[in-house]
Design goal:
Helices cover about 50% and strands about 10% of the residues. The chain is of the alpha+beta class and about 525 residues long.
């Protein structure tokens, strides 16, 4: 309704009244209609320069076709109303200035897709650099905040070569620069932190910004394998456009981000996540209090973060990085850009489209296939050719016995010194001499056991050399090389300590069993 009102009032009738004074009828002359449609081709885009001035640039209007659609719908609605109530609506009937060819849906969809594809192509190559810049920006603002807090009220300090004077408030972090302008360093650190959290959350989940802002502490659940007891961390994503929730596997990188967010928003006195009431701008209603992850303390009261703040913090990170596009303008990032880059990169690196559809929460796979990936069509053709050559029985729903065998494979991967990464349905090529296998993922906790295995192999090699058992020496040396390689992998690994996610104390929810998807 907001878009409809804006299109019909500001973009249509207010524009016509401004350029054609005294007009009082919807029966527009041909030259008036043509001039209005020409003006709707472009709009003025305002961008703030680093020096504070405003730069105005004329760009092509992206919603031009939608404006035409709404104006045409208005004329057609009036014509229909005139049939039902001729006395009221008859005088308003007028020929529609918008032709059918001007609102061709396929052309609009094609242009929109081309524009969004170009955004993804420009931003995907610099995604890692942008993520590093957001982390650097956050660390810089945090360092500035520490400096101002270490300065007594009224004292002076230097940041990036500029002299500042701290305010008189002991609890605050406000300061004035050499020209007397007030700077709130705590607010700058707050915005830099949530820009970093947004970038990391969205690029590791592919979630929508509404879904991210609605994520609560209770969304993190644990799935425990029924036999081994191994815990798999999961993240429940509440639907924002569909009525179907989905569950994502929490990667180590995402776990680190979630743990950092929880440490920041947790109440230092109670250790709990404060309950926050959030206004849903899409549904136009207040949500019940919930332990939202994206919240902050505003003057002693916990408050939710809105999408507009998220977009502004991303712009500040771009300004800090100084990233520009081919035309020299700032290369802006929106929350939707991260979602498109996540899906595009996942499919481009080999993730089947139907799995990407489930992860992204698309109701129709054609939506997933609309993302700019050159490999999608090739992958679909490959799948089609493979299915014509392979028996149709392989694509049926598995039986209970097959499903239990499938689960059993993952439960039997646990070994004394680590985890076997062998794919389901493949045989062990080392006849269970796991220390030799490149697919063994050593557990850092079991480093001592691997050292014992290495020392035992050294003793056995020495014994074989004394006794002349030359036939065993070669095999023992292969095992020794494998054991030393696994020890080196553990020593070279960084960040091996487990991350405490601060899981809520509630019964873990187990995801529904989807046999067909797991079997495939």
């Amino acid at each position: 309704m907001d878009n409809l009102a804006r299109h019909l009032t500001r973009n249509f009738w207010a524009d016509i009244e401004r350029h054609h004074l005294g007009i009082d009828t919807l029966r527009l002359p041909a030259d008036v209609a043509t001039a209005w449609k020409e003006r709707m081709r472009t709009r003025v885009q305002r961008c703030r320069r680093p020096d504070g001035s405003i730069e105005e640039t004329v760009v092509e209007r992206g919603d031009r076709t939608m404006i035409f659609i709404n104006v045409r719908a208005l004329y057609l609605d009036i014509a229909r109303w005139a049939i039902e109530e001729p006395a009221r609506w008859g005088p308003w009937v007028a020929p529609c200035p918008i032709k059918v060819a001007e609102i061709a849906n396929q052309k609009r969809v094609t242009r929109t897709k081309a524009r969004m594809d170009q955004r993804t192509r420009e931003r995907l190559p610099v995604l890692e650099a942008f993520a590093r810049a957001s982390a650097d920006h956050q660390r810089l603002r945090a360092a500035h905040l520490e400096i101002v807090r270490a300065t007594p009220p009224g004292g002076r300090f230097t940041l990036d070569g500029a002299l500042y004077t701290r305010g008189a408030n002991k609890a605050g972090a406000a300061a004035r620069d050499a020209e007397g302008r007030l700077v709130h360093l705590d607010r700058a650190e707050h915005r830099a932190f949530w820009a970093w959290a947004t970038v990391e959350f969205l690029r590791h989940t592919g979630a929508r910004v509404e879904e991210m802002l609605e994520t609560t502490h209770h969304a993190m659940v644990q799935y425990r394998l029924p036999t081994t007891g191994e815990i798999v961390p999961l993240l429940q994503i509440a639907p924002s456009k569909t009525d179907v929730e989905r569950v994502l596997l929490v990667s180590p990188e995402l776990a680190d981000v979630l743990a950092t967010i929880i440490r920041r928003v947790r109440d230092p006195k109670t250790g709990l996540i404060p309950l926050v009431t959030r206004y849903d701008s899409e549904e136009r209603q207040w949500d019940p209090p919930a332990p939202l992850l994206f919240q902050y303390n505003r003057a002693g009261e916990p408050s939710s973060i809105n999408s507009q703040t998220i977009r502004e913090t991303l712009k500040e990170t771009v300004a800090f990085m100084g990233l520009t596009d081919a035309t020299g303008r700032p290369l802006t990032f929106t929350p939707q850009d991260f979602r498109r880059m996540f899906i595009t990169d996942a499919i481009r690196t080999g993730l089947p489209p139907h799995i990407a559809q489930v992860i992204a929460g698309h109701a129709n796979i054609n939506t997933t296939m609309g993302y700019p990936t050159e490999t999608i069509e090739a992958h679909r053709a490959f799948i089609a050719r493979r299915r014509t050559l392979r028996p149709a029985e392989e694509y049926r729903t598995p039986t209970d016995a097959e499903w239990e065998d499938f689960l059993g494979h993952f439960e039997r991967r646990k070994l004394s010194v680590g985890t076997c990464a062998r794919a389901y349905g493949t045989a062990c090529i080392h006849e269970h001499a796991c220390v030799r296998c490149s697919l063994l993922r050593p557990d850092p906790v079991q480093r001592g056991r691997l050292v014992e295995i290495r020392d035992n192999l050294l003793d056995r090699i020495a014994e074989a050399e004394r006794e002349g058992w030359l036939g065993e020496i070669e095999g023992l040396r292969v095992s020794l090389a494998g054991a030393e390689s696994k020890i080196d992998q553990i020593d070279a690994a960084s960040g091996g300590m487990p991350i405490n996610l601060g899981m809520p104390r509630q019964a873990p929810a187990q995801p529904a069993r989807q046999k067909g998807a797991a079997h495939r």
